[in-house]
Design a protein that fits this description.
It is a single chain. The protein has 6 helices and 9 strands. It is an alpha+beta fold. The protein has one domain. The strands form 2 sheets. It has a 5-stranded mixed β-sheet with strand order 2-7-6-5-8. A 4-stranded mixed β-sheet has the order 1-4-3-9. The longest helix has 14 residues. It is globular and about 45 Å long. The chain starts with a strand and ends with a helix. 26% of the residues are buried.
């Protein structure tokens, strides 16, 4: 088994934007995301729809994928994190992508969500001002969640 750690949130590298010597406090990030969404007219979606979405944990999620039949384990992190939030917020906050029946989006709280594609979710994202953006859509390409608790939660959500 080959192990690799990869942060999907950093798509372009610029040391001024992605590296911070002092990590911001969570309340600062919440204020930053709130102000960004207000400035860019990004609204919320219903609690009913949001409850049917899987949140990528801040500490990341261990996944397994296969390449030419060889299993690889890797860690997938939320698209926006404390190291890249200024660059990534502009690039991903209020954006979504669909691949193979799975929707990934970065919500107003800066967290990465995935869900089974459904018309209600897509309509609410559009009504809230979300825009399409090409991004990694976790679990849309044969990757598997390794943690049994998180895997069960994903399977419950996607029934």
């Amino acid at each position: 088994m080959i192990n690799n750690t990869w942060n999907s949130g950093v798509i372009r590298e610029n040391s001024n934007l992605t590296t911070m010597t002092n990590h911001p406090e969570p309340s600062y990030l919440a204020d930053y995301f709130s102000a960004y969404c207000k400035e860019h007219n990004i609204g919320g979606i219903s609690d009913e729809v949001l409850k049917k979405c899987f949140v990528i944990p801040d500490e990341g999620i261990d996944i397994r994928l296969y390449s030419f039949g060889i299993p690889f384990e890797t860690k997938y992190y939320p698209i926006i994190n404390e190291n890249n939030y200024k660059m990534a917020a502009d690039w991903y906050l209020g954006r979504y992508c669909v691949s193979n029946g799975i929707v990934a989006f970065v919500y107003r709280d800066g967290r990465t969500y995935i869900a089974k594609k459904n018309e209600k979710l897509i309509n609410e994202l559009h009504q809230a001002g979300f825009k399409w953006r090409s991004m990694e859509v976790l679990l849309s390409d044969g990757k598997e969640i390794i943690d049994p608790v998180l895997k069960a939660k994903w399977e419950e959500i996607t029934k």
